[in-house]
Amino acid sequence: MIELSEAAAIAIHATVFLSRNAGEPQSLKTIAAASDVSENHLSKVLQKLAKAGIVASVKGPKGGYYLTDAARTATLMTVYEAIDGPWKPRHCLFNSPRKAPCCCAMRPMLEQINRTFYEYMTGHTIDKLLSRPVPESSPPNAPFRSVRYNTERRPSPCSCIATSANRRPRASAA
Fold it and tell me: Over the chain, what is the mean pLDDT?
């Protein structure tokens, strides 16, 4: 199973957003609104990314965050590890070690998932993601989210992030 913290997901989306908007620094408020995340949580994530040299900030009224030149060619794994630390593949569905030797029937599937995740995260840079068509959002409550590609390049925000323009109303609990 892949463990991707919310902070790591925010970091990946924020770096893609900053790359798409590379012309000028983006304010914390703008990035948070585009990502539909808390400014406080985003601030902590951006601090970790700055410490890792992935983003930098400019102070002042027209200040904000921007992607460093080196980060444009950084892999997604670099961004992930800046937030969550070194990636550790999971080989068992149990969260704690088992006393008996593992004979898990799911191990081949987990190994394939781990390999796919590792290859994707180490084989894709932020710039490489930007060269692909932008996916349109699926309903957030869909059991399996399908990705439909839009042939138009939308400059911002990252289309897989809900914004007021593309947010769908949530179903109310009855």
Answer: 77
Any residues with CB less than 8 A from the CB of 82 and at least 6 apart, and which?
11, 48, 49, 51, 52, 54
Contact between residue 114 and residue 90 where contact means Cβ atoms under 8 Å apart: yes
CA dihedral 10, 16, 21, 25 (to 10 degrees): 50
Tokens of 173: 């609990």
Token pair, residue 96, equals 């704690």
Name the pLDDT band for 134 (thresholds 50, 70, 90). low
pLDDT over 60 (residue 45): yes
Residue 109, beta-bridge partner list? none
Residue 60's φ and ψ, nearest 5 degrees, are: 115, 175
Give, in order, the Cα–Cα distances in Å from 174 to each of 20, 53, 139, 171.
Answer: 40, 47, 19, 9
If one counts every other C-beta atom within 10 angstroms of the C-beta of residue 54, the result is 25
Mean pLDDT calculated for residue range 68-77: 88
Alpha carbon distance 47, 50 (integer Å): 5
Instruction: Answer whether the bond into residue 157 is a cis peptide, omega within 30°.
Output: yes
* CB-based burial, 8-31: b 16+ in 10 Å, e otherwise: bbbbbbbbbbbbbbeeebbebebb
